[in-house]
Design the sequence.
């Protein structure tokens, strides 16, 4: 590894460690409630718990928190290549919500290269790093759809080879679901991903990724009823994740369960993260309007205006 790259990554890790979201998590080891995840890696035994928590955060789209925790792992075990896999995967953002921008793509590619420089300790870890690389490779030449399909193909290989690895199962199902074209009203991709996730959930009932991605898979009116049970459970599994508080309301709204939508978005609107707060308040406004609660809707609208 060239000295300049040592300094570059050391500075980046130090910056992430300085972020306010990290301090309580490192002190408490498994601070907060993020669900049950175990992603065994060959890094030092002392960082395994933090790594597991980082992956749990990642599954609930708490990307900044996950990146900070992966940075903590890299700090505590400088030879942990999988910490940089985690940073690269965090930089992808939500595969449901759009496309990573140029800065995120460049950062993710750099993290993958750092992981490769440190070197995977097992074939399984090498496969995960290669999957992340498939997502970022030639981002200046391949469009988002091409890179998503390459990522899905790489994860499918891991899923096929490591059948006892729930993370391979869940990450693959997530990407399959995210590949769904918006014009396909057969919901073939969503149902394929959901079938895998239902199997994973039966074995790991408190896994935040299995529950979360099932909600996204079923977030379509014709199939929304299939997601009601997991929608009602997600906030109890990962109450520290703002998205776990808010995303269940998508199912509630599609089914006309307005009071449950209101309750979920009230809870989600109390978080400190402005992105999630704003999203929850918009859904809360909509839910109040659907139930004719004009005074409550006006209060939320005034708050939203003040935030904007």
Sequence:
């Amino acid at each position: 590894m060239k000295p300049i790259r040592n300094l570059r990554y050391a500075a980046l890790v130090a910056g992430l460690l300085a972020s306010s979201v990290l301090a309580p998590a490192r002190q408490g080891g498994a601070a907060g409630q993020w669900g049950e995840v175990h992603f065994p890696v060959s890094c030092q035994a002392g960082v395994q718990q933090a790594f597991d928590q980082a992956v749990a955060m990642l599954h609930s789209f708490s990307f900044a928190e996950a990146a900070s925790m992966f940075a903590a792992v890299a700090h505590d075990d400088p030879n942990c290549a999988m910490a940089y896999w985690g940073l690269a995967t965090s930089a992808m953002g939500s595969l449901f919500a759009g496309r990573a921008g140029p800065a995120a793509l460049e950062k993710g590619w750099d993290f993958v290269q750092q992981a490769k420089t440190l070197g995977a300790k097992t074939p399984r870890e090498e496969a995960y790093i290669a999957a992340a690389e498939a997502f970022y490779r030639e981002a200046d030449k391949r469009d988002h759809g091409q890179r998503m399909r390459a990522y899905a193909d790489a994860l499918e290989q891991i899923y096929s080879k490591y059948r006892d690895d729930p993370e391979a199962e869940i990450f693959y199902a997530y990407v399959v679901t995210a590949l769904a074209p918006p014009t396909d009203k057969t919901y073939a991709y969503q149902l394929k991903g959901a079938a895998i996730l239902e199997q994973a959930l039966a074995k790991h009932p408190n896994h935040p990724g299995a529950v979360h991605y099932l909600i996204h898979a079923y977030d379509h009116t014709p199939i929304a009823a299939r997601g009601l049970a997991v929608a009602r459970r997600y906030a109890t599994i990962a109450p520290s994740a703002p998205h776990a508080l808010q995303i269940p309301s998508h199912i509630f709204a599609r089914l006309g369960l307005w009071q449950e939508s209101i309750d979920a978005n009230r809870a989600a609107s109390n978080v400190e993260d402005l992105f999630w707060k704003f999203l929850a308040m918009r859904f809360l406004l909509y839910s109040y309007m659907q139930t004719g609660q004009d005074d409550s809707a006006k209060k939320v609208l005034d708050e939203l205006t003040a935030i904007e």
Notes: The CA atoms of residues 269 and 279 lie 8 Å apart.
